[in-house]
Amino acid sequence: MTDSSTAETGVAPGLGVTKETARPRRSPWAWLRVSGSVGPLGIATTVLWLSIIVLLPLAALTVTSFEDGWSGFWEAITAPAALDSLRITVFVSVIVALVNVVMGTLIAWVLVRDEFPGKGIVNALIDLPFALPTIVASIVLLSLYGPQSPIDIHLNATQPGLVVALAFVTLPFVVRSVQPVLIEADREVEQAALSLGADNWTTFRRIVLPTLAPAIISGGGLAFARAIGEYGSVVLIGGAIPRKTEMASQYIQKQIEIDRPVNAAAVSVALLAISFVTLLVLRLLADRSARKEQASR
Questions:
Q1: Integer distance in angstroms from the first to the last C-alpha of the chain?
Q2: Predicted confidence band at 40 (pLDDT cuts at 50, 70, 90)?
Q3: pLDDT > 70 in the chain, percent
Q4: What pLDDT does residue 215 have?
Q5: How many angstroms separate the CA atoms of 175 and 220, rounded?
Q6: φ/ψ of residue 150, rounded to 5
Q7: Do residues 245 and 157 touch, judged by C-beta distance below 8 A?
Q8: 239-272: b (≥16 Cβ within 10 Å) or e
């Protein structure tokens, strides 16, 4: 004879499971459920827009890069000129990211912790590279550091010139990533460390830097990803000398001009893969940092 509680819950009495604690069976279609305030229409609109703006162009680019098959794709990205352009691009972008990590953190520190005349103007200038067409930066840098340099510094057609140009267009990333964290940082902990005899460098290294590290890494990674695909700021100052200052974006343009769209698409996909891996690593690091912060509370 079956007990009434057993009939309701499907669990024998005495096992400590009641109707309230019994877990309902998860539907195989549960992942399709929509929740939130926008509803299915809002989500469908978002997906459609992202598909038109991002997914379809990337899919078309990938299909074009494989028009000659896998062997054609591999030959295109392993051609000596292509490899040299990718090597130069990655090398210069890493240098730019490291420069931004140091100088961007310093600028953010000064803007948050120091007061000086014209601070508001300097703070506004940080975002100028976002608004200014990058080709304008290349023209300015060429007039300043080119063959007719008024200050007798010649960086035209050199890798240091590429670094300066890319540092200009990627300046805001680290600064704007670190600033909010510095503003929200608990300065009482720093004051306590200083009162206990720690010097400024030790306080920064042991207390401030661990707090800023996720923001610094995120900003540096974004600067690297931005520099990877930059074209406008380096088109004039760089000179596009093969195997010396030719960035991957300039190599892609050259392949299009000589009617080799498959080669251009293949190198573009290689740049896309590098940027995607960079952003994925940043996303994983951000999630890990968020989990650690929640666990510490």
A1: 51
A2: confident
A3: 86
A4: 92
A5: 10
A6: -75, -15
A7: yes
A8: bbeeeebbbbbbbbebbeeeeeebbbbbbbbbbb
- The identity of residue 15, as a single letter, is L
Distance (Å, rounded) from C-alpha 137 to C-alpha 66? 35
Mean pLDDT of the chain: 85
Residue 13 belongs to what H/E stretch?
Answer: none
Of 32 and 112, the structure prediction assigns the larger pLDDT to 112
- Residues 282 and 247: their CA atoms lie apart, in Å, by 24
- How many Cβ atoms sit within 10 Å of the Cβ of residue 161? 25
Q: Tell me how far apart the alpha carbons of residues 228 and 129 are, in angstroms, rounded to a whole number.
A: 16
* Nearby residues of 246 by Cβ (< 8 Å), 6 or more positions away: 81, 84, 85, 88, 238, 240, 254
267 with 251: CB under 8 angstroms? yes
Nearest in space to 105 (alpha carbons), one of 181, 169, 163, 162: 181
Cα dist. 96→23, 109, 171, 221 in Å? Answer: 54, 19, 9, 10
Question: Has residue 7 got a pLDDT over 50?
Answer: no
3-class SS shares of the chain: helix, strand, coil, % to 5: 70, 0, 30
pLDDT band at 224 (very low <50, low <70, confident <90, very high): very high
**Which range (34-48, 71-85, 179-193) has the least confidence?**
34-48
pTM score over 0.85 = no
Instruction: Read off the amino acid at residue 153.
Output: I
